[in-house]
Amino acid sequence: MRRTAIITSLSAEVTRRIRQFGDFITVPLAIVIFVDLASMYRLHLVLVGVAAWTLLEYLVHRIVFHRYSVGRRLHQLHHDHPNDPDAERSSLSTLLIAFPIGLLLIGTAGVEDGSAIFAGLLLGYLAFIVVHYAVHRWPIEPNSWLYSAKVRHLTHHRFENCNYGVTTIFWDIVFRTNARIISERIYFGAR
């Protein structure tokens, strides 16, 4: 009986770890595979994919997770418990979302071009999960390059109507949702 409880507990812990950290293994492997399919002559399309990711990240975060009820309910759990890894998206869901996008890109742009763009999207997503993980779980010193990302993201958690970009501030500036807190007051735009 005790052995069964230990195995069940171990199995639950392994599943939890895979849910939380699976993307940190599978996404880099997928990037390598798709860059290889694309060839080095399509590096510019990989960069197009990375740039497209930043816009996609911004729009999904702002619109799907903060305006539509289903996305908002799922995302609110993360806002309510920002440091709880169980309140974040699951690594297991990445394949369900990424696979159809990759197939669509390869089907419309061809194997090489579609693979290059998809590799760029995955590279942008990898940057997102690393930065997001870091701002919530790493001690980041004020002179670190990640410090501004942490402050911006924590401002988003506090006010929710600003700073939707995690990996870049660019789209928040373009769409005028960039904000920062100074002495407990929120300021929008360049300042």
Task: Based on the model shown, name its key terms.
191 residues; mainly alpha; 8 helices; 2 strands; 70% helix; 4% strand
Describe the protein:
With 191 residues, the protein is mainly alpha-helical. The chain is built from eight helices and two strands, in the order ααααααααββ. It has helices at 2-21, 23-38, 43-64, 69-80, 91-109, 111-137, 147-159, 170-174; strands at 179-182, 185-188. It has a two-stranded antiparallel sheet.
Shape: globular
Number of helices: 8
- Helix-strand pattern: HHHHHHHHEE
Q: How large a portion of the residues is in β-strands, by DSSP E?
A: under 5%
End-to-end separation:
63 Å
- Please outline the major beta sheet: 2 strands, antiparallel
How many strands appear in the DSSP assignment?
A: 2
Radius of gyration, rounded?
19 Å
Query: Which structural class do you get from the secondary structure elements?
Result: mainly alpha
Average pLDDT works out at 81
What can be said about this structure in brief?
The chain has 191 residues and is mainly alpha-helical. 70% of the residues lie in helices and 4% in strands.
